[in-house]
Amino acid sequence: MSDPVLELDRLSLSFGGLRALSELDLGVGEREIVSLIGPNGAGKSTVFNVITGVYEPSSGDVRFAGRSIAGLAPHRVARLGIGRTFQSLRLFLNMSVIENVMAATYGNTKAMPWESVLRLPRARREEREVRALAEDVLSFFGQRLAGYRWEQPAYSLSYANRRRLEIARALATSPRLLLLDEPAAGMNPAETHEVTELISRLRDERGVSILVIEHDMHVVDSCSNRVVALDHGVKIAEGGFDRVAAHPAVVEAYLGKDPGALSDGG
Amino acid sequence: MSLDSPPPAGPRVGSDEWVARQAHRREYLPSWLGSLERASERAGWWPKLAAAAAAAAVLPLFGLGQFQLQVGIDALVIALLAVGLNIVVGWAGLLDLGYVAFFGCGAYGYALVSSGQIGANGIHLPSYLSIPLVMAAVAGLGLLVGWPSRRLIGDYLAIITLFFGEAFVEFTNNVAPSVLGGPNGIVGVDAIRLFGYTFTTNKSYYYLLVIVLVVTMGVLRLLDTSRTGRAWRAVREDPLAAASMTIPVNRVKLMAFAFGAAVAALAGTLFAAQQISVFPTDFDTPILILVYAGLILGGAGSIAGACTGALVVMVVYDGLLRSPTESGYLFYGLILLTLLAKLRPWRRLALVLAATVALGYAIHAIAAAVSDSAVAGGPHSAGLIAGALRDWVVVPASATVAGNWGFVALVCLLVALVQVSSQWRTILLPPTLYLASFVWETRLAAEPAITRQLMIGAILIVMMNARPQGLFGSRRVEALT
Ligand SMILES: Nc1ncnc2c1ncn2[C@@H]1O[C@H](COP(=O)(O)OP(=O)(O)OP(=O)(O)O)[C@@H](O)[C@H]1O
Ligand SMILES: [Mg+2]
Fold first, then answer.
1. Which ipTM did the prediction report?
2. Which domains does chain A have, with CATH numbers?
3. What pTM was estimated for this model as a whole?
4. How far, in Å, CA of B143 to CA of B147, rounded?
C-alpha cells in the first residue's frame, strides 16, 4: 500500500452511553477500493459521518492526505476532496438533475453574487466549466442518466437512478476520496452488477480512492482490494475478501453462533 | 436526526413515466389552457418579463383614476416585497416572519435621512446616496438578525423572526419619540430625486416602481440561475447534503437573509417617499400576511409567481373588495369556478346547479307566501347580481340576525359536507350553496373589512385544492424516505 489517502487513528465516538465506534484504525490508500462490512447497526455509516465532519470524534484522529480533519465542518471536508453519498438518499429533489450536480461545485467556484448578476468574465467562465463538468460527470453513467433527463426534477428519477445521481453529485465535488454508502441497496441483480463495474470504473477512469459500505457480498467480493469488517463499532477483521468472509468473528457477527457461510450474500 | 434510515421500498416513479404524466396532465386541461401553457413555456423567461413590463407601462394610458393608481402603487410595493421574501422563503427555505420589519427599517431609514427629523435643519441626502445606503444598512441588519438565528430552522426561526417583527413595531412606537416620532411617525419625507427628475406625482411613482420591480426581478433571475441561487435551493432541499457537497450552509443562509432584507429596504424607501410619511402601523402584521398570501398564491420559489401572486392579492384586497358589488362578483365567481373545476361528471354539475336554482326560487316563493317581512330586505349586492338574485335569495327585514344564524348553519353544513360520502355531498351541495349566498347577501357583503380577510383566505383555500404549488410554482415533493 502506498501512502494512505485516508487514515483513521484510534477513532472513537459515543452517542450518550452508546459506544458507536471504539479505537478504530483504518486506512485507504491511493486508488484503493476498501469495503466496509458489518451487520446492521455496526457503525459503518457512523464512520462516514465522522470522516465527513457530521460528527466530531470523542477521541482519535482522522487524517486526509496527511492533514488532520477531525472536527472540520462538513463543507470544508468536502472541499478538501472527500465526496460522499448517503444511505438514505438525500438528493435535492426539487431541483433538476443537472442542477443537483452543478450545485455540488459551489465550494470550488468563486464568483461573487454581483459577478453572477453582471455576468462578468469570471462568472461566465466558471459557469461554462461547471456545466461542462456536470455533463461530463453525468455522461459517466451512459444511457442511465442520458441527456434528456438532465432538465427533469430529481424526484422524477427511479430509485436506481437516484442512487446514480448521488454518485454523480459526489463526483462533481472533484473528490480524491469517495465514500459510497450502500450504492447497490434496493437495486435488482442486473443493476447491482452494474454498480460493481461502476465502482471499478470510478477508480480506473477517475482515479479516485473509494471507501464503500455494502451489504451485497458479490459486490464486495468483485470490486474491493481490501475488506474491513465492523461489529459494535469495533474492527473485527481486515484483509482480502475470502479471509475476512471466512473469519470466525465475522461469521459470528453476521449469523450469531450458528455455523454457516456468507456465501449467499449476507 | 436520523441520518441513515433503512432504504425505502421506494416509489418507483421512472422518468419516462414522469414525462408521460406531464403530457397527460396537459391533455386533461381544457385545450386552450393546455396550448396557453405550452406557448408560455416556449416563450422563455425574459420575453415574458418584457411583455409584463410593457403591459404595466401602458396600463395608466387607459386613464386610471387616482384611486386605481394608488391601488397599483400599493400592489407594486407588496410585489417588490414578495419578490424579496421569495429569496428567503422560496429559495433558502427559511420561514422568516419578521420580514416586514426590514421593509419598515428601509422606510424609516430613508425617512430619517430625507427629512427634517434629525438635527436643526434635518438631513436631506440625495436619493442616489440614500437609497443604496439604506439598502446596505438594512442588509447589514439582516446579517445581524440572521447571525444568532442561522442555526435555527423551521418553527424556531419563525417564532424568533416574528418576535423581531413585533419588536420593530414596538420600537418605532416607543423608543426615542423625538427622532422616530412615536405613533405619529415621521412626516414631510423628501420625494425621490434621480437624474434631475423629482418624483412627485402618483403616476411617476407608479412608473418608478414598475422599473424597480422589473430590474429587481431581472437581477434575481440572474442570481437564481447562478451558483448562489443553486446553493440557496440546495440548502432548502437538504442542508446536510448541501454541506456535504461543499456548500457553506450558514453563510448561504445569511446571504439569503441579507439579500431579502436589501430588497425589502428598497421597497421601504420608495414606500416612504411616495407616502411622504412613515408610521409604525404601516409595518404591522397585516402587511406580512398580504406578502405571504401573495407569495403562496403565486408559488413560493418562483419570481414570476411571487410578483403575480402579490399583485393579484393586492388588487383583489385593496381594489375590488372595497365595494360590495365587486366583492360579490369575486365571491360568486370563486364558487362557480370551484364547482366547475371540482364537480365531475358534467351531469352531476348540471344537476347541482339546477337544484340550487330551483331550491332558491322555491324557498323564496314559500317565504313570500308565509310572511311579507321574510323577504322585505333586498340582496346587499347591487347591479347584475342584485337583479339576478332578487326573487331567488331570501333576505328578511332583520337581515343581521338572520345572517348571523345563517353563518352558523353554513359552517355546520360545510363541516358536514367534508365528512359525508360523495352521494350525500351532491345532495347537500345545493342547500349549502344557497345558504352561502344567503349569508353573503344578508351579512358578509355588508362587512367589507372582515370579508376582505375572509376572501383572501378563501382564495388561498381554493388555490390549495386546485394547484397546491401556486400559480407559477413548480410541484414540490418532500423527501420520500
Ligand atoms: N445520531 C445518532 N444518535 C444516537 N445514536 C446513533 C446516531 N447515529 C447512529 N446511532 C447508533 O449508532 C449505531 C451505529 O449506527 P450506523 O448507522 O453507523 O450503523 P450501520 O452500520 O450503518 O448500520 P446499517 O447497516 O443499518 O446502515 C447504531 O446503534 C445507531 O443506532
Ligand atoms: Mg448505515
1. 0.92
2. 4-81+175-263 (3.40.50.300)
3. 0.85
4. 6
